[in-house]
Amino acid sequence: MTFELGTDGPRVIVAGVDGSDTSMRAGAYAWGLARRNDSRLILVHVSPVSSISTLTPGGATALLEAADEIAREIRDELQQAIERGPAVRHELVQERGDAATVLARIADDNRADMVIVGASMQAGHRLIGSVAVRLVRAGRWPVTVVP
């Protein structure tokens, strides 16, 4: 095994944020890690689309507007964090789709060194697998799950 010199710590961190308490803690943890390591931070908000196709056009519009509102709130919280503390090279990506699939694609596309997500609070994820479990099973990057 050969080690590279001068590459301590992650250079690119991808963090999933959906507005839940655990995801916001994951975002804060990722922010601090990126600040300490001078890493690039990509905060990803994924709006689920699985139920949109079964809704009426008005219902789908309302669901999409709610997802956009959550993304705006996350962006506002980020702006407040930026004003309070040291700057971090970051970007907020908002997409629609399956959270694990989108996070994996963005992590791969940006050659992420790690992925950070909040622990799932949904009981059903114990049976079908949470986003975190699916990312760990992908096995392409270290995944940190923040409680």
Can you walk through the features of this model?
This protein has 147 residues and is α/β, with parallel strands linked by helices. It is built from five helices and five strands, in the order E-H-E-H-E-H-E-H-H-E. The protein has helices at 21-37, 57-84, 99-109, 125-128, 131-138, and strands at residues 12-16, 40-47, 90-96, 114-118, 143-146. It is 46% helix and 20% strand. It has a single domain (12-146), classed as HUPs (Rossmann fold, 3-Layer(aba) Sandwich).
SSE diagram, text form:
Blueprint: E1 12-16, H1 21-37, E2 40-47, H2 57-84, E3 90-96, H3 99-109, E4 114-118, H4 125-128, H5 131-138, E5 143-146
Parallel strand pairs: 1-2, 1-4, 2-3, 4-5
In short:
The chain is an alpha/beta fold and 147 residues long. It has helices at 21-37, 57-84, 99-109, 125-128, 131-138, and strands at residues 12-16, 40-47, 90-96, 114-118, 143-146.
Feature tags:
globular; UspA; 5 strands; Rossmann-like_a/b/a_fold; 147 residues; alpha/beta; Rossmann fold; five-stranded parallel β-sheet
* Cα gyration radius (Å): 16 Å
Counted up, domains total 1
Major β-sheet strand ordering: 3-2-1-4-5
Class by helix and strand content? alpha/beta
Q: How many runs of DSSP E, i.e. beta strands?
A: 5
> Under the CATH scheme, which architecture would be assigned?
3-Layer(aba) Sandwich
Helix content: 40-55%
Most strands sheet: 5 strands, parallel
Choose one word for the global shape: globular
CATH topology-level name? Rossmann fold
